[in-house]
Amino acid sequence: MEIKKKDIRALTKEQLRNFFEENGDKAFRGNQVYEWLWQKSAHSFEDMTNISLKTRQMLEDSFVINHIRVNQMQRSEDGTIKNAVRLHDDLIVESVLIPTATRTTACVSSQVGCSLDCKFCATARLKRMRNLNPDEIYDQVVAIDNESRLYHDRPLSNIVFMGMGEPLMNYNNVLKAIDKITSDEGLGMSPKRIVVSTSGVPKMIKKMADDGVKFKLAVSLHSAIDEVRTSIMPFNATFPLASLRDALEYWYAKTKNRITYEYVVWDGINDKRKDVDALVEFCKFAPSKVNLIEYNPIDDGIFQQANSKAIDMYVDILEKNNITVTVRRSRGKDIDAACGQLANKT
Ligand code: SF4
């Protein structure tokens, strides 16, 4: 019977040091290998050129490196890049590089498919297959950082967890990946440049506050009226706005970090004055910022971007109430890389 080899990147540095000691080598060898695995993102043991051939063979016999492979890369006219990423078990997720004049942002996936069922989202049409491992999240970031350097002559500056999946439903692995991304033994990025975007899982928002995380939080709100929100995000029936608000109040009390709301205005769904008034009311308990995001239809004819008059109304009323608001143009539409469009068409 073939013995299934363990993914070496599931080991902590300490475990790797112990492995070498138990096999008659120096613990220090574990540090060297750890550096190859994370800082240098080695795809194979062969790459580890300062490790002896004998040791590399021992590693080969004991472990695998389940590195992701970029299966297909698409480049948009506006510089956006979408990667279809193949995982070790041949499942595919997508991640996106979004360049602007001042920053390069990676939008990464946290799950294969999604267990939630937001009606406007292409990913929701895919069954949730599994959570991504920390190294699979980390690898997406490394791949985009490399592409950013290659095609845009600058390193990656920001990361958003807004790709496929609900990151707080894969909380532990997302946190482990962020630990690596921000650690000097990984990419050394500042946690302030990372945004975890959730559809709003109250229990997990409170846990994040208790855990003292340093990254930023964004909530895909889309409506501050329960009836409307439940019709477009059905899990709102289980976690209604009052429980979301309660969790966000808790988050703000502990972190003092402003809350960002992601918000799409759809024609005939949330484009009326009462929708804006409810949003203003919802935002009152803590300093808030609203990102109004341009929507990209997913061919179902139901969800259409509201007209510019409705967007102007939102901006006007939010500003009058001293709530920061930005209107975000969507990127990479021609390659289905825009918000809500990630659905493994490849
Ligand atoms: S919007 Fe996010 S949480 Fe909702 S179905 Fe899509 S991927 Fe899942």
From TrEMBL:
Look up keyword tRNA-binding and say if it applies: no
Q: Which GO terms describe its molecular function?
A: 4 iron, 4 sulfur cluster binding; metal ion binding; rRNA (adenine(2503)-C2-)-methyltransferase activity; rRNA binding; tRNA (adenine(37)-C2)-methyltransferase activity; tRNA binding
Q: Which UniProt keywords apply?
A: 4Fe-4S, Cytoplasm, Disulfide bond, Iron, Iron-sulfur, Metal-binding, Methyltransferase, rRNA processing, S-adenosyl-L-methionine, Transferase, tRNA processing
Q: Which reaction does it catalyse?
A: adenosine(2503) in 23S rRNA + 2 reduced [2Fe-2S]-[ferredoxin] + 2 S-adenosyl-L-methionine = 2-methyladenosine(2503) in 23S rRNA + 5'-deoxyadenosine + L-methionine + 2 oxidized [2Fe-2S]-[ferredoxin] + S-adenosyl-L-homocysteine; adenosine(37) in tRNA + 2 reduced [2Fe-2S]-[ferredoxin] + 2 S-adenosyl-L-methionine = 2-methyladenosine(37) in tRNA + 5'-deoxyadenosine + L-methionine + 2 oxidized [2Fe-2S]-[ferredoxin] + S-adenosyl-L-homocysteine
Major localization class: cytoplasm
**Record SUPFAM superfamilies:** Radical SAM enzymes
Q: Which residues bind [4Fe-4S] cluster?
A: 114, 118, 121
Keyword hit for Chaperone: no
User: What family is this?
Assistant: Belongs to the radical SAM superfamily. RlmN family.
> What the protein does?
Specifically methylates position 2 of adenine 2503 in 23S rRNA and position 2 of adenine 37 in tRNAs.
Q: What is this protein called?
A: Probable dual-specificity RNA methyltransferase RlmN
Organism in which the protein naturally occurs: Winogradskyella jejuensis
